[in-house]
Design brief:
Length: about 500
């Protein structure tokens, strides 16, 4: 950690010629074209306090204080705090003391300033020019940046800028889309490929790159060589996740592993296995993208932007995710409890040092993921910890039937569902070999069993037939014929 760091409380952009002032970054004075200097003040005096006792949707916890800060040049800035201060006191932001601290920064000016503030408060990045770095972004399906599915391209660009300033020679950006999606399509639509091209940095499809094997916890893990040989900076989008509760720094590392390894982790039970990932890949630094963040039925574009306006930074992936759980007021997911028990990271909130903002000051009740939701209101998923390929394609089948009415159908996926989860549901469709095997073992009477090696269009035709015919007990010859016809006409197109 470097000493004597100046941590800005207030920044202003000042024209050197005419003295005009801005509260956001400007390149040149718009009045006289004069050059701009950034004026930073690390100390400010508290000149006003408003105590708020009435909760509101954006500010559920009371009482809180809005303190008004003023620096030596008379610039003012409000800040929300939970702690009580006195008028006339000096206010300073204290940098991180603990190794596993989590910095919470609000985007006050722009993404770049907020990132610099976060890294500065964390004590910098420990990198030398000879280091090679993998920026592990989150980009699971083709979606536009405003949908908050993928790592914000501006944030990525700021991280690249910071590393280039440090003289880091070898920087690469990498990701593997959710199994069943095309990585390059996803990275293109997210604006990530553009950032790479503009900065002359390679983008690596981690699913297709060279792989290595590592032994850990009695299992062979296959993963991209780049995730082992490069230092990893983990840049997840912070999201609600209908399977895992939340997706963040830990979940984002899942996709450096081969499809085979990912499937094996889900087959063993992902809540148990997810924390084990950190025994194989340890990120140097995690930068949680909550520029927008996602709420509702994430991690795909079924979820919606959360407009959090935050950046989280930590060297402890688990602690960062734990803080996000608290901010969004999510229940602590099972895998996170497991991570705490196994020592993969800090999950005890009282032991996590929050820097810059108090966790309670940025708490905001996000829309919780609804278990089993799909894009179709009548098609529900019963999730037995299905692997990302099955989960993704199940969602896609439902998506293709949006607009068609019918009776409720439950798509049962994964190997870890319980009898309680299917109890009371009438029309069950088992999808994938794990669910089919488990269903057989439990003596479940399903309307259909759909295997993953069936062409997708065939599965969709079968599901449609079940959706539209409430009395259907089994698929018949007519369904098989319809599916053949659909496959034939798809081929002709
Ligand atoms: Zn000017």
């Amino acid at each position: 950690m470097c000493s004597g760091r100046v941590v800005d409380v207030i920044i202003r952009w000042l024209c050197e010629k005419c003295g005009k002032k801005w509260i956001y970054p400007v390149q040149k004075c718009i009045y006289c074209r004069g050059p701009i200097t950034k004026r930073r003040s690390a100390k400010a005096k508290i000149i006003g306090i408003t105590k708020v006792n009435i909760p509101s949707p954006m500010h559920p916890l009371t009482p809180y204080n809005i303190i008004l800060l003023e620096d030596e040049s008379g610039n003012r800035m409000p800040k929300k705090v939970m702690k009580d201060y006195k008028i006339g006191e000096m206010y300073e932001v204290q940098p991180a003391k603990a190794e596993g601290a989590v910095v919470i920064s609000r985007i006050k000016y722009d993404v770049d300033e907020a990132l610099r503030e976060s890294i500065n408060l964390l004590g910098g990045i420990n990198l030398d020019p000879q280091d090679s770095v993998l920026l592990k972004v989150s980009c699971i399906e083709p979606a536009y940046p405003y949908q908050a599915v993928s790592t914000n391209p501006k944030l990525l660009e700021s991280v690249i800028g910071l590393l280039k300033e440090k003289g880091v020679g070898s920087i690469a950006v990498g990701e593997q889309a959710m199994l069943g999606n095309d990585t390059m399509d996803a990275a293109a639509k997210a604006g990530i490929l553009d950032v790479c091209k503009k900065n002359d940095i390679p983008f690596i499809d981690l699913g297709k790159a060279e792989q290595v094997e590592r032994e850990h916890d009695g299992m062979v893990w296959k993963l991209a060589r780049d995730a082992v040989e490069r230092k990893v900076i983990d840049i997840p989008t912070m999201k609600a996740h209908s399977q895992l509760g939340i997706a963040g720094a830990v979940e984002n590392l899942l996709r450096v592993f081969s499809a085979e390894t990912q499937k094996a982790l889900y087959a063993k039970g992902i809540h148990k296995m997810l924390p084990q990932i950190l025994g194989v890949v340890r990120p140097l630094l995690c930068i949680g993208d909550a520029v927008n963040g996602m709420q509702g039925n994430g991690p795909t574009s079924l979820g919606e932007p959360a407009f959090l306006n935050l950046i989280l930074a930590s060297r402890d992936a688990v602690a960062l995710d734990r803080v996000f759980v608290e901010i969004g007021m999510f229940p602590v997911p099972e895998w996170m409890e497991e991570a705490g028990r196994g020592g993969a990271g800090q999950v005890d909130l009282r032991k996590i040092e929050a820097v810059n903002y108090e966790v309670d000051a940025v708490k905001y009740p996000l829309r919780q993921p609804e278990k089993g939701a799909t894009a179709h209101p009548r098609i529900k998923i019963v999730d037995g910890e299905a692997d990302p390929h099955i989960f993704n394609t199940a969602l896609r089948m439902a998506q293709k039937l949006v607009g068609l009415s019918g009776e409720e159908v439950s798509l049962v996926i994964g190997a870890h569902f319980t009898s309680g989860m299917v109890e009371g549901r009438r029309r069950l469709v088992l999808y994938g070999k794990d669910a089919i095997a488990k269903g057989k073992g439990m003596g479940i009477e399903a309307v259909a069993e759909l295997t993953e090696d069936m062409p997708e269009i065939q599965r969709v035709v079968f599901l449609r037939s079940i959706l539209e015919n409430p009395d259907k007990k089994k698929l018949g010859i007519a369904d098989a014929f319809r599916a053949k016809l659909a496959m034939f006409s798809q081929k002709r197109k």
